[in-house]
Amino acid sequence: MSGVVPSPKQQSTVFNLPLKDSENTRAISTFRAIVQSCYGPAGKLKMIHNASGGHVTTTSMSQTLLRTMSVSNPVVKLITSAVLAHTGQFSDCGLFAAFLCSRLVESCLKLLVPQQVAAKINEELLLVSLDYLRSETCRCKASLDVGDANMMLALVRSTLGSKPALIVNSTELSSLSRLILQGFLKSIPDTTEGKLSLTTVEYVCVEGSTINNSQVMDGVLFETPKITEKYLSKVQPRKTLYQGGKETIKVALFNTSLSGDSVEFVDTAYEADVGVSGDVVVLQQLMQVAAQLVQLQVGVLACQKVVHPGVQKYLAENGVLTVDRLGSLHVGAVQRLTGAT
Questions:
Q1: Contact at 8 Å (CB) between 320 and 298?
Q2: Could you tell me the CA-to-CA distances from 91 to 38, 88, 120, 155, 238 in Å, in that order?
Q3: Inter-residue contact 44 to 60 (CB < 8 Å)
Q4: pLDDT digit string, tens, across residues 60-72
Q5: What is the spatial distance between Cα 302 and Cα 321, in angstroms, rounded to a whole number?
């Protein structure tokens, strides 16, 4: 007879150490120096590498920096958690918040006053600062006219210029700033009814190309190595007449596999008679779906995953262009573009 004897539960231990401990002071000072050296236009990049190996992270962004740093000191952990919560809500000023928090704690530890008094003073200073920032006489705020293209362009250029990892010359910086502003303006809807919602702007990186070759394009841009000029010469997506006599192309969008071997049904049990092939039956069902798409005068079949070659051949013969392997990133953009439900 065998059995398992559980080990006795160990009692939790709580260590009560003074905040003015030399180890805390040294850890906060080191953390503040790291953050301060990343802040501002003269900030430097940091290379983070685990002592056990792995990849190297090069960054000056607060979110990436704080998430990849290995922090053991409890006070620095508390500051890091507070800053990450701040950036998660506001998506800005992470480095400034980290520098301000660490600098306040570091300065208060050097004061010859009780810690409770220092905390009360900081709370009062916070209220005074918030009242001043909300007032009309605050000189820390600058008015921004979103209708002034030059002012908006200067804002984008100054933001990009503060990124040390963006190694570009003045011409490339101006070109990139114009493109970002152009993309932002295109994302604003034409109508102002209801709540304002900006269109998502996707960034597609192409290796081997310069910034001067970048451009803003309407629609969705993704790689389709199977769709060549020769393929397009044989398959022309059919067009249908829309209301008012305008031609349009119907798009059918699938977010599931159309190859017949979807892993979404891996736990499903099948029973087949002798001589009946499950693959053949599934292909027949897919061909029925394809025939239905042709009957509905669909011009383009877009699929997040893989489409069976037999289905692609049948659709091509009937004037339907197939675009598969969109991925989870592009399928959402195609859905917004086409209005698919």
A1: yes
A2: 17, 6, 28, 17, 45
A3: yes
A4: 888 888 888 888 8
A5: 8
